[in-house]
Design a protein that fits this description.
By secondary structure, the protein is mostly helical. The protein is 37% helix and 7% strand. The chain has one domain (12-78).
């Protein structure tokens, strides 16, 4: 499942003021997926219980950074999604 952490029924200012990790966690709680993975270059203030499902992307190269790509491939393999 792919989605955004902000949707039209949310109070926008709450989303803006909330740390990115908490935005993602609330989205996970709302959607209740069996597995999930978050990719973001913002690593500050992520809840400790989210770090196993979080991969920090490169500030400028995003997921194009070779180190980040390896981490994504490894995580997808543990989720049973990678080939």
């Amino acid at each position: 499942m792919i989605g955004a952490t902000f949707h039209s029924q949310m109070y926008e200012q709450l989303s803006v003021d909330m740390p990115r990790g908490m935005q993602v966690w609330l989205d996970v709680v709302r959607r209740n997926p069996c597995d999930w993975l978050a990719l973001d270059d913002d690593f500050l203030n992520w809840p400790a219980w989210c770090t196993d499902n979080f991969i920090q992307t490169h500030e400028h190269e995003g997921i194009g950074d070779p180190v980040v790509l390896v981490k994504i491939e490894e995580k997808l393999a543990t989720l049973g999604v990678a080939e």
